[in-house]
Structures are given as C-alpha cells and as structure tokens.
Design goal:
Layout (H helix, E strand, L loop, with lengths): L1 H8 L5 E6 L1 E14 L6 E14 H10 L3 E9 L2 H11 L4 E8 L5 E8 L2 E8 L7 H14 L5 E5 L10 H11 L4 E4 L13 E2 L3 H8 L6 H15 L3 E5 L5 E5 L4 E4 L12 H14 L4 H15 L10 H12 L6 E2 L1 H13 L4 E6 L6 H12 L3 E7 L1 H8 L8 H9 L6 E5 L5 H7 L3 E5 L10 H6 L3 E5 L7 H13 L4
Parallel strand pairs: 1-4, 1-8, 2-6, 4-5, 8-9, 9-10, 10-11, 14-17, 15-16, 15-18, 16-17, 18-19
Antiparallel strand pairs: 2-3, 6-7, 11-12, 12-13
Helix pairs in contact: 1-9, 1-10, 2-8, 4-5, 6-7, 8-9, 9-10
C-alpha cells in the first residue's frame, strides 16, 4: 500500500478530456410528519434545496476535487437549466469547458426528494434524442483538437443523446489514433458502441444485461467480462460489485478482486462518476491500471458514505489509505473534511459533542473527561491544540509530544470519533464552524468561563461540565519527571 500513497500525489495536475452527457442534479430535502388528506401520500415539509452538476458534470466535479485539470465537451439546451449548468461548470477550478447549445433541446434535470436520508421520489426532465448532425460535427471537431493536449479521454455515457449516432465510437477512434487511453462509463446493452476502449466500467447488473450471462459469483463475473473483452477488443473491465467491491479483469489475463472499502453506505448516487474520474486521473498520472483501480475503489468507498451526489478529495483517499494501514489515523481530519462528516452525522439525526485540550501526556483524567463527553452525545469531536499553540500557552519546552502523536493517541480511543488540530490559542473559531450540540469541559471551569459557551448557547446547544478525576495533571506529571531526573532516577 505504500506505493499507493505516492500514487495519490500523481493525481494532481493530470490533464483529462471528458466527453459526455451533463445534467443538473436537484435535491429537495425535508421531513415527513404527516400523510396528505388529498391522497395516501406523504407530505414533505421542505427544509432546503441544492443544485449541482450531475452525470458527466459530476465526473468533472470529482476531477476538480482530485486536483486534475480537465477539458469538457458536451451539448445543452437553450434553457434555464442549461444556463445554470454552464454557470456551475464555470465555477469549477481547472476546467476548460466547451458546451454547445442546441435549439429545442431540453437540458436534463433530475430532481430527488429526500426525507430521513431516503429518496422518496425522483422526477426527470430531459431530452434523449441524438444531437443534430451539425452539432455532432462541431463536437467531434472540438474533440479532435483537444485530444493531443490530454493524457486520458473519458467517455461518460448517460444515454441522453450526446454520444449517440456513432459519437462514442468516433471519440474512441480519435483517441486511439493519437495513442491516448480511453476510459468508458457505459450505458445500455450494446457495448460494441465502445469497441477498442482501454477500460470499461460496468456494474454487475449492466454486465449481466450486456452479455446475457449469469454474474452471481465472482467466477461468473470474470467469465462474462472475458467474453465481452474478446468480443469488443477492450483492454480491461473494472466491474463494480456493490457490497462485494470491484474486480479488475484484464485482457492480458490478470484478475484482481478489490474488496469493498466502504464502512457505511448512505447514498450510491454518482459513485460511478467518482470511480471513473479517479481511475482516469490515475492512468493520466502514470499510475498502473491496477493501482489506479485500487485508488478508485477507495474513492468509491468514501463517496457512498456521503449524502447526495458527492465527490471524493485526494486528501480523503490518503486518509482512507492511512486508515487501512494504521486504523487509528483514520479519525484525524482537516476542518473542511470534518465539517463534511459532521453534516452527514446530522443528516442521520445524530447529536454531536465537542471538547478540546492540549492532551500532551494523556492520563486517566483525560480519559475520564472524554468518556463523559462521549456519554453526552452520539459522536464526539476533539479539538487538539497544534504544537505552535501549545508552545504559546505552555512555554517553549512544550509540547512533549508532537501534534501528530497526540492526535494519533486520541484517535485510538473508542470514546473519540473525530480529531481536529487547530492553531489558534482557543477553539472559539473551531466551535463556531462545527456548531456542536454539546460542549464539554472539566468542572474546574464555570459555564461562563468556557470558551465558546456563548456560541453554543446562542443556538440552543448545551454546555456540560464534566467531573474531574483528582490527582491527575500533565504539568504535575512533567514536574515529577523533572524531579526524578534531578535525583538520578530514569
């Protein structure tokens, strides 16, 4: 796995050309508290709405999150949704977009209604007709111009017409003529449309439909994949197997099962986009196909733990890899990623607690505080002063242990769910960003003395003073260690 850590760094700065169907993903979140008197249907009380790029647009979002540069070519309608999609693409860093507009075309919108993390209904507005011959010619001209400046080509097919009428085949042929690998996310049952692609990424159900073969076992999946590889001259198939992970089947004969990397699954929307983006960025960075597939599998395991059409950042893949190698590191987060995880907890209705400290030499008093803090919530976030912060607060001889060591020790405790290192002297900014439901400190403070108490109380949160375990102090322990050295002990 150590080679994979190096491979993650190679995702950044890669140049990927993506051609495919873009859409607008519209999420409507709310709560169901009653049944309609007009019909036996639930009434969704709407709390909030979000709009983001979907389909091939979500591939772009994932490429951006990985630090890759991308050129995007697609077709939109001359409508409000098309203009909103164009604006969202323009907000993506490192993306060069060529979105052609076709009169009379309806830009795709998928509206999902969600309550208690469950989709209640999806409503689609779309056009699936092939693009006109004129637009098709313009699009292929743009593809041929863009291919030489990119290391990998992605074909993201959602069967909305952009890649119909031979467009997918023409893109693949142009890429092969230029010596560029092509990664395809397929649609439908006729995979001869993608003949000659370097890697195809179907899921188990799609593989069964395309081959009309059984795929219930791993051996059956591999057999079906080999039939398809031989029939369509594919370099490899990366087959998604849901809770069973993935399997990479290569034309050269290699078969590589990749166990599922997800620890919790909340929403599989867009997971295939994450896989295709990570796989392509890896190949573009010179990472081997197998290692790129490993990274894509890790990325998929992360994104299915998020709500809605989400993305995976390169740093999250590094965290997941570290978790596999050293499980205790998996709880450490930067603040932006901590906030993402906390949001997912809240969507599940979980109560979030927070406490903080230097935790220089972890002692029974700390353990008791953390245990009490965890008892007051469903998930506990611990803020840890950085080395610079501890030095300012405790003097030039502190800390005894580095911030990484202190965070790693805290991560090993079952009472701790997340660890965030902060550089300020107090956690006030951290508390304001996290907005914990419960703020816990030792009973040697009064409530009005607790940093951030006013913030938490302002939105109805709770400030809790935990019982102290007498006779335990980091400073006293360090002094005792110094006295022991003076007397020749140790």
């Amino acid at each position: 796995m150590s080679d994979l850590a190096t491979a993650i760094d190679r995702l950044t700065g890669t140049r990927v050309l993506c051609v495919g169907d873009v859409m607008l993903d519209h999420y409507v979140y709310g709560q169901v508290e009653r049944v309609s008197p007009e019909a036996p249907i639930p009434v969704l009380k709407i709390d909030r709405e979000t709009r983001m790029l979907g389909g091939a647009g979500n591939v772009l979002r994932n490429l951006e999150a990985l630090g890759a540069s991308a050129c995007f070519i697609s077709v939109l309608g001359n409508d409000d949704a098309g203009r909103e999609i164009t604006k969202l693409i323009g907000n993506c860093a490192g993306i060069e977009a060529h979105t052609l507009v076709e009169r009379g075309r309806v830009s795709t919108i998928k509206t999902r209604f969600v309550a208690a993390n469950q989709q209640m209904l999806r409503a689609d507005r779309e056009s699936i007709a092939p693009v006109t011959a004129h637009v098709r010619a313009d699009m292929l001209r743009l593809v041929e111009q863009a291919i030489p400046g990119h290391e990998v080509v992605i074909v993201s097919d959602y069967a909305k017409g952009v890649l119909a009428e031979g467009v997918a085949a023409a893109v693949i042929a142009a890429a092969r003529a230029a010596g560029k690998p092509v990664v395809v996310d397929p649609k439908g049952t006729d995979y001869s449309l993608y003949r000659g692609a370097s890697v195809l990424k179907p899921n188990r159900r799609e593989l069964a439909q395309a081959t009309r073969m059984p795929v219930g076992t791993l051996d059956e999946v591999v057999t079906a994949a080999r039939i398809l590889i031989a029939a369509c001259d594919f370099g490899a198939l990366l087959v998604s197997l849901s809770e069973d992970g993935m399997v990479l089947v290569e034309a050269a004969g290699g078969v590589h099962p990749l166990p599922a990397a997800a620890r919790e699954v909340f929403d599989v929307s867009g997971a295939g986009d994450t896989v295709i983006a990570t796989l392509a960025a890896g190949i573009a960075g010179g990472v081997s196909l197998l290692d790129s597939a490993h990274l894509a599998n890790l990325a998929a395991g992360i994104v299915v733990g998020k709500i809605g059409t989400a993305v995976t950042h390169a740093g999250e893949i590094a965290d997941a890899l570290a978790h596999q190698e050293h499980a205790e590191i998996g709880k450490m987060r930067t603040l932006p990623r901590a906030i993402e995880e906390i949001e997912r907890w809240r969507l599940r209705g979980l109560r979030v607690g927070f406490t903080n400290g230097c935790f220089d030499l972890l002692h029974p008093g700390h353990v008791a505080l953390l245990r009490q803090a965890r008892a007051a919530c469903d998930r506990l976030v611990v803020g840890v002063n950085s080395d610079a912060s501890v030095g300012r607060l405790k003097g030039p001889t502190r800390p005894i242990q580095s911030e990484a060591a202190r965070a790693a020790v805290l991560s090993s405790l079952t009472s701790v769910d997340l660890v965030v290192i902060f550089d300020e002297d107090t956690p006030r900014e951290l508390i304001a960003a996290i907005r914990p439901d419960a703020l816990v400190k030792g009973a040697d403070y009064r409530v009005e003395e607790v940093v951030g108490a006013d913030i938490v109380q302002s939105y109805g949160g709770q400030v809790i003073l935990a019982e102290l375990m007498p006779g335990h102090s980091t400073t006293a322990t360090i002094k005792k260690m110094g006295a022991g050295k003076t007397m020749g002990v140790g």
